[in-house]
Amino acid sequence: MNVLAYLIPISLILGGLGLVGFLYTLKSRQYDDPDGDSRRILSDTWDDAPKP
Amino acid sequence: MTAATTNTPVACPGCLATPVEGAPVALPDARVVLSLPTIHCQACIAKVEKALNAHPGIKNARVNLTLKRALVEAEPGVNAPELVTLLEGEGFEAHELDPGALNETATRMASRDILMRLAVAGFASMNVMLLSVAVWSGATDSTRDLFHWISAAIAIPAIAFSAQPFFRNAWAALRAGRLNMDVPITLAILLALVTSLWETWLSGHHAYFDAALTLTFFLLAGRWLDARARSAARSAAEELTALEVPRAWRIEAEGPSEVSVAELRVDDLVLVRPGGRAPVDGVVTEGHSEVDRAMLTGETLPEVRGVGDVISAGEVNLTGPLTLRATAVGQDTSLQRMAELVAVAESGRSRYTSLADRAAKLYAPGVHILSALAFLGWLIWSGDMRISLNIAAAVLIITCPCALGLAVPAVTTAASGRLFGKGLLIKNATALERLAEVDTVVFDKTGTLTTGKPRLSNWADLNARQQEVAYALAQGSSHPLSRAIVAVAQSAGLPVQPLKGLVEKPGFGTEAEANGQIQRLGRPDWVGVAVEQDGICAALDVGDGAPVFLTFEDDARMGATDAISGLKDAGIRVVLLSGDRVTAVREFAAELQVSEWHAAMLPHQKAQFVKALREEGHHVLMVGDGLNDTAALATAHVSISPAQALDAARAASDMVLLGQDLSPVAEAVLVARQATKRIKENFRIATLYNVIAVPLAVAGMATPLIAALAMSTSSITVSLNALRVRGRG
What we know:
A: 52 residues, B: Alpha-Beta Plaits
């Protein structure tokens, strides 16, 4: 059962990374315009270089 | 995103001096919000952003497709009307929004805050649940203790963060000496944590960390649904308000300039252009015109106004430009005084207790007593503090209103989503429940059941020459009756025949000369005939000295007949109240087959009528749009107003009808009844689970596994039941 000493922290860290990622997207206002974001990817305006 | 005050210029006197004569005032620190109702695809986004970003002076423009808005950050000097023209040139309908009326950041912050707590609670409960599964499937001794300790380490900070909204609400309720749903929730969560910690400390078998977290998670999910539905409704309602940017033309030494209505002072000279709404109460000093008072009185006939006549704020100027000397501005205008009636009437409505509150009132003391009895019973019987506390916690957790917390928001979200799709916006949280109780519907006529736009009714009776002349004369005016003539002539496919020397005489009509004869279209007494019939009419003289009457009708709004027959089928009494003339109302009521109607009602009579119905024990739904309906809207049990209604009327009503169609009203009542039925069903389901699980808990047979099962299954059943409201639509 000693393997638990590794497995539990690892699984918690991985899950925590997911949580932090979600909170980051929330903080950086990525859910303000879900319709627009799903459409913008279809336009080729910023395909060659990122928006300055 | 800092300043919401962009639209109040003139902090400095210099700002006033800069604009060119007659040009709109430039906003000093320009953040312009435009509403773009027609955008729908990636090409629209690209086109709008490209056009805006190419415009000189614009720093950044970004389109939000979900809200159908464009946010523009620009240098001072860029004004909204020029951007609207720019976008209209690109083929997009655009309207300026008043950024001051959009405080979406506040509502969005609240919803985001709950989402963040929900995420933390979800993460923590999943992890703890996995650890608990290991314990339930047979982990023993030190492994079990280790798992319990890890669970505690996750659960305590997670709950401290995510359950804060419940703690705060419960504390506020207790301090005010009341009990609400959050009190048993808080108690259950805290008691579960404390007993579980104690058990873990003593290497006991049962810990409820997973239950406390799942409880928080499900309840937050309910709150989030609630907040999201409400913020969507609020944002749409704010947009309606923001569309009416309050501007006025003030006549200054160097000519008229556009200023914010808030800056107008008594004795200022204000120019009201044809089609504009008077921003202040005032006396006419120059000009002659007709005004439409329908918003204030419900009267469809325009009235003549000349020098020396009084005009109230909210009246619409129809034909010629008018100059007013302001006698009352802002809070003192008659418009505002009427709005104050609303505040008085509204205080009566806040006494309504929602179904959830009523359930909480029965429920909260019940579970506390039950859990306290279980604790006392076990303490006396076994004398063991630890077992008794464990059982009390189990009872609280199992009875905890997880399903009850979801029962109402899940149904309201589903139902308001369905009604929003039909074009009905629900502003108030308890409006659906109140709507379900309705047994009488009171309609206003002008602008609510009718379109408020006249239609020429005797076009076919005119001969070809009369039709041609009427069309030609009508083109010279923007008066609603002229526009009605143009509309019917265009639909008949009449060719355009320009007339020489066409002049509009504001307040009277239009005239032109042809073959040495004077042709006139306008007020009957001006054209030279006496009015012989009741109703809206104009007269036409083609130059032969034999004037004819043109009669107009105010058409029923689309879906009015459907709405009324639908309501009657649902067994609801329909009443028509109008400020209009008796004959007009009688005919209209007969057309729509409404047997009960009252005409020439003054605003306070309408409100009294509704109040009298209320006192008889009826639940009244008021549907109205004008200022004359505002008091009645606020007095009624629940109220609906169309989106074209005056701001005050919209503010006073619980629901706003977004489209032109009136038929969603009948459907809304049916959906509301169905929703209330589902809510009550949900309460019953939740109670059933309790009836099964509580005896187990009291008997001390409830393990954390049983608690988790009961909680999850009841929550899921309740949510699925709620989703049935959405169907068939």
